[in-house]
Amino acid sequence: MALDTETLNLLLDAVRRFVHERLIPAEDELATSGQVPPAIVNEMRELGLFGLSISPDFGGLGLTMEEEVRVVFELGQTSPAFRSLAGTNIGIGSQAIVLAGTDEQRNRYLPKLASGELIGSFALTEPDAGSDAMALRLSAERDGDSYVLNGTKRYITNAPIAGLFSVMARTAPERRANSISCFLVEAGTPGLIIGKPDKKMGQAGALTSDVVFDNCRVPASALLGGEEGNGFKTSMRVLDKGRLHISALCVGIADRLLSDAVKYAMDRKQFGQPIAEFQLIQAMIADSQAELYAARCMVLDAARMRDRGENTTMQAACCKLFSTEMVGRVADRAVQIHGGAGYMSEYAVERFYRDVRLFRIFEGTSQIQQLVIARETIKAHS
């Protein structure tokens, strides 16, 4: 159920203040330490940021898709690692349980995910399975009242700090959707081994690592929904939502980048005048503003379609493709407007330039989005 206008505005104002008063000032500390300060994690919990999409019945805020993307527009104004910490709880880590979990699984995990007591982690990608998700090899073999998991997951977000892993595993050898199941595996389970945090190009503080399952035995009750073969199908059902969420994040980041670039252009003087008065600088500002506006409109339109119960597979892919490519172009222009200063780590645009490169890769590469858009377009015209 949608919030009333006053309540939504109060929430957006609270998130906006939190971003500008607490998160932006902590960006340098985050970049240096590589972790979100514990005090800020607690404040994120108090604001309800881990439970944006989880029903109030389980302690969440139960936002609509449009409300969620509006919140994410605000969260995008700062380092993406802050949002990443709560991202799995908001997205597939909770929504898979909402859609396909048993009552016991919902009652056990959703309140803890909504409060941030548990940090979720979604384990799909493997060394030889990325865009081709059905190529995954991690196996789950039934053994009495248990399943035994063996295999390796790669680049798994939040793995070093997660309390609950949603693990996609093969329960049948055939290459088909119903050969893949999802298991809810708690941290500390014997045979669950977390690798060293990855060293990445950007997004310091958004922790990723390998996750190894070495004869990791879990009870049959860990099988999502108590049913084999629904893992891949469930993940596809919530994929549109995740793509809209990431698209909204890119809109927020582009807004921050454009703001920083304009402020710098107004302060920086060359040839006796602010560089903002030069037409070639204005052209970069104008192109960035136009693309930002287009992306924002796309995301809001697709979110409203989803809230009306319409199929948004094509629209979500369009948003993901356009918004992630857009924020890369805006970041590039922001660095260019800053000139030599934009290459220096003391300016946020240098960090964002590296951070945003990931968005064209995860949650489905730009090339995968193109295939989805083409497929859905052809289908619609058949």
Automatic annotation (TrEMBL):
InterPro entries, A to Z: Acyl-CoA_DH_CS (IPR006089), Acyl-CoA_Oxase/DH_mid-dom (IPR006091), Acyl-CoA_Oxase/DH_mid-dom_sf (IPR046373), AcylCo_DH-like_C (IPR036250), AcylCo_DH/oxidase_C (IPR009075), AcylCoA_DH/ox_N (IPR013786), AcylCoA_DH/ox_N_sf (IPR037069), AcylCoA_DH/oxidase_NM_dom_sf (IPR009100)
Domain Acyl-CoA oxidase/dehydrogenase middle: 121-216
Gene3D superfamilies referenced in this protein's UniProt entry, alphabetically: Acyl-CoA dehydrogenase/oxidase, N-terminal domain, Butyryl-CoA Dehydrogenase, subunit A, domain 2, Butyryl-CoA Dehydrogenase, subunit A, domain 3
Keywords: FAD, Flavoprotein
Cofactor: FAD
Domain Acyl-CoA dehydrogenase/oxidase C-terminal: 229-376
Domain Acyl-CoA dehydrogenase/oxidase N-terminal stretches: 5-117
Similarity-based family: Belongs to the acyl-CoA dehydrogenase family.
Protein name: Acyl-CoA dehydrogenase family protein
Organism: Achromobacter seleniivolatilans
